[in-house]
Amino acid sequence: MKAAIAAIVIYFCVAGVFAQGHHDVRQPEAWNAKTIKWQEVYPDGTKYSLLEGRRDVPGEAFTYAFFIPAGYWEHHWHTADARVAVVSGALRVSFGDKLDKTGSTIYPEGTFLLVPKNVKHTMGADVDTIIIGTAVGPWSTHHNEEHTHH
Q1: Is omega for the bond preceding 108 within 30 degrees of 0, making it cis?
Q2: Domain annotation covers residue 110
Q3: Is the residue at 15 inside a domain?
């Protein structure tokens, strides 16, 4: 009888581990310009959403979306590499210590670019633009407020 009870307990413990592992399996997800649910909407017209992962966990990858309205420009840099896909519109980027609209390169929809960590850059758009980016935490963006325009 003790052996039967031990076998049942072991069975349920093992089954529980497998069931728990089953719940930890992530489901596939996909996003496009029309399916992003914006979590943060700012007075300047920009929007942000953390699509998956966490920005504050060292070594953990995360994915985010950012909406840049036509006419918006900002100067900033990040604490980690950013890998960015332009999913709608056209992103304009220039690199340097000051906001630079005229020296910016236009990256149209379908473009993928790498912006290395700690590289100061200007980002803006002439048309409404959405980017989806990936990075690894911990992540923070440092804005040069005197060089941000809309």
Answers
A1: no
A2: yes
A3: no
Contact 123, 66 (CB under 8 A): no
Angle 107-94-136 (CA atoms, 0-180°, nearest 5)? 80
Angle subtended at Cα 56 by Cα 75 and Cα 117, rounded to the nearest 5 degrees:
40
Answer whether residue 12 is part of any domain: no
For the domain that residue 53 is a member of, what is the CATH number? 2.60.120.10
Give tens-digit pLDDT for 27-63. Answer: 898 888 899 999 999 999 999 999 999 999 999 999 9
Alpha-carbon dihedral sign for residues 48, 52, 53, 59: negative
In a domain, 16, yes or no: no
What is the C-alpha to C-alpha distance for residues 90 and 68, in angstroms, rounded to an integer? Answer: 10
Tally the domains of the chain: 1
The model scores a pTM over 0.70: yes
C-alpha span between 93 and 84 (Å, rounded): 12
Query: In 3-state terms, what secondary structure has residue 34?
Result: coil
Give residue 108's domain range: 40-147
